[in-house]
Amino acid sequence: MQNDTPSMTTHVPLEVTPVERLPACGHFDDPIVSLSFLNNQGVYHLQKAEFKKAIGNFQHALQLLGQRFDPVRIAALGCQDDSCADPACDSKTCDCGVSRDSYIYQRREYDEGMHHFCEPIQMDMETLSSMSSNDEAAIVVFYNIGQLCLLRHKDEEATECFARALYLTRSCTRDSPVSPVAILHNIGYIQYRNIELEKALSTFRDALQAFRSTSHKLEYAATLNCLGVLYFHLPKADTNSAMENYANALSIRRQFYGNDHKDVGTTLNNIGRVHYIKGEYDLALVHYLEALRIRRSLLGKNHLDVAATLYNAGQTFHQKGDLSKALKYYKEFMRITVPKLGQNHRDVAIMLKCMAQIYHEQREYDKALTLYGEALSVGRAALGMHAEVASTLNKMGNLFYERGDFDAALEKYQEGLSVERAVLHSLHPNITVTLTNIGQIHKQRGEYSEALKLYKEALDIQVKSLGETHPSVAVTLSNMGLIHYQNKSYSKSLDIYQEALRIRRDAFGEDHLDVASSLNSIGLVLFKLGLHQMAMQSFLESLRIRRSLLGDAHRDVAIILYNIATIHLERGDEEEAMKCYKETLRVERAALGPDHSDVVLTLQYTAQVHRQRGELEEALDCYNEVLRIQRKNSTESADAAIARTLNNIANVYLQQGSAKKVVDTMSEATRIMKQAGENLDELRLTGFHKYGFAVLFPENAAAA
Question: Cystine design at 542: which of 77, 312, 318, 516 (Cβ 3.0–4.6 Å)?
């Protein structure tokens, strides 16, 4: 939409065309007075949400002006004298016509500053007398009908009215009674809430161009804010452009309003969201909390826009890991919204899911499951078959997966997949996530063929939607490679891992953590194939990348060191193996603490190397440290792992010839094993247990 130079149309002096009959309230001798009265009565009824009466007044005003608007369509606009069905909406900020994307929760029904020019226009006598043509008066009436259409969610009719008003303004030889900027704002707003973001950007840019000949700085700031919102909501957010427009809008608004104004609060909230999606959580909180202060002081503690900022701040605390503060803000959001929106509302369902996630992360599974169940119930009541319902089902599946209840997890994932297939397009990425999660369960059960079938289906979707070289394809290939590895199909596994490595190197370059992960996986396969030198090269390259990117004190560095130690041990180089195990222990203790389960595993293998080398006191030191950690961490009265460690200690005593210590230690191991209900045949006084190679692929957690 171009801001064309007004054409040199000849203007007809204002001549109100008489009509045969006016409403009883509209009989005036002067048709100009009748026009003003009809318009203003229409505005009055519009503001009271009496749409039928309002449209009747506006229709008669158009007749007086000799303008036509489809009588069937205009009658339909007033077919019900009710307000928006959503109790959260009001006549000034109603956005409930917005198409909603539940996976990226955009609270567009809350104030983002997108509907700045939302008031209908009164036509006083001074304004009317200054008009030079019927066209100028018609601009006001069409504009007001457009506002009515917006409230009735008749976007096509609204666009037509605003377009006709805009056309008439461009025919004016002097200032229009309604500015082109106001009309363009409303057209852009309609495009925005219908997710026509590129069209909306073009419209608001046209509005910005119209300010070249105006000094209305606050309207200019409103346009900048709207542009910022649109850049933020693009499928690939243009955060730089969004921030530039927001910053300029904020500067102007503070210059004219000071720091404590509603529009300042709106822009601060919008800026906070840009920082949030950039991962700049501290900066996001600074802006959210200032916006919250302003909104609470001006709007009161129970306003929906206060709730929106509470949600944003809570989400930011959640990302920062401050779960207690996040939960506090989420609960305050619920306190405000439930009385206003009702229990069975989409936003309530989303917040219940957010609260459940906090308990989920805190491993308070029962509380989390209760809230997920409530979120599912509310989501189904509010939305029916909807992607948000699928999201909640997948979260429940994740919880059951983490608890080891694979049957329940599978049930929820399959329910979620059914919903996703019904409401999302066939190549949607969420479907691939759910397929992967279901495949993960089959993998855990050892049902490798079924797992591969699901991974292949996910891969097919990714290749079609993203292309063969997308990094997400490499993730699914890695999952398939792991299945073949666990199924001892090492050659197939190697081929797949090498393809994943090629994709990742092309996408990220040599020095990337995903490249290091693929190199580690390839090293494991090469080890199983007996290609120890090649495996060592792969591990060393992975170690170099991880050290350069993560430093020395990181678990992933310890994993590679451990694997390198195992190759040295396989080659019979116990000295080098011991050096690597000790370095692994140092890194693990620094990264994870002295009592982590990874430390236990490394100590156990270090002890075995000491035993093989005849260093029995050193082996005992390692086993006793394992025993200390296990007893400290155990939550069971009888822990079979402790019994097995005592068995290992007894075997060292046997090698030392300490018969009494052997008997005492084995007696305690046997007692614990019996209490734990385990098979006593596991306890043996014999030679060495052969060391094992730790398959240090991270266990693939559920992805949704």
Answer: 516
